[in-house]
Design a protein that fits this description.
Elements lengths: L2 H20 L12 E7 L5 E7 L8 H10 L1 H12 L6 E6 L1 H20 L1
Parallel strand pairs: 2-3
Antiparallel strand pairs: 1-2
Helix pairs in contact: 1-3
């Protein structure tokens, strides 16, 4: 993976995090904002997938928040273009980070098996 791509992914992650915290009102949809776990850019840097990590308290409200973020995508993209100073602003898509949920379930399974073996 190129250094340039990594730097742009981190820049997008910081900029969108700032926008979500300071400029998007999500209080109707969720109590605590999810974390952005990672950003994946396409090879031509024209498309970005933003993966969100929810805590266990808000996992059931993820659909309403994702719908709200999808409706706010144009505002978030505009904010990204203003604050990130990129030549081309990628199209963005929000997704739930399934890897972390899988690892959490796997960890819980190991804990249960360990208790059963004792």
């Amino acid at each position: 993976m190129s250094t340039r791509k990594l730097r742009i992914e981190q820049l997008i992650k910081r900029t969108i995090s700032f926008t979500l915290i300071n400029e998007i009102d999500c209080s109707n949809h969720i109590e605590r904002m999810p974390s952005i776990s990672r950003v994946e850019l396409s090879k031509d840097l024209s498309f970005a997938k933003i993966y969100l990590l929810f805590d266990n308290d808000n996992i059931d409200k993820k659909d309403s928040l994702l719908k709200h973020l999808k409706q706010s995508t144009s505002f978030i993209k505009k904010s990204l273009s203003i604050n990130a100073h990129l030549k081309y602003t990628p199209k963005i898509e929000f997704k739930v980070d399934q890897q972390m949920m899988f690892l959490e379930k796997l960890n819980q399974t190991f804990k249960n098996n360990h208790k059963d073996n004792l």
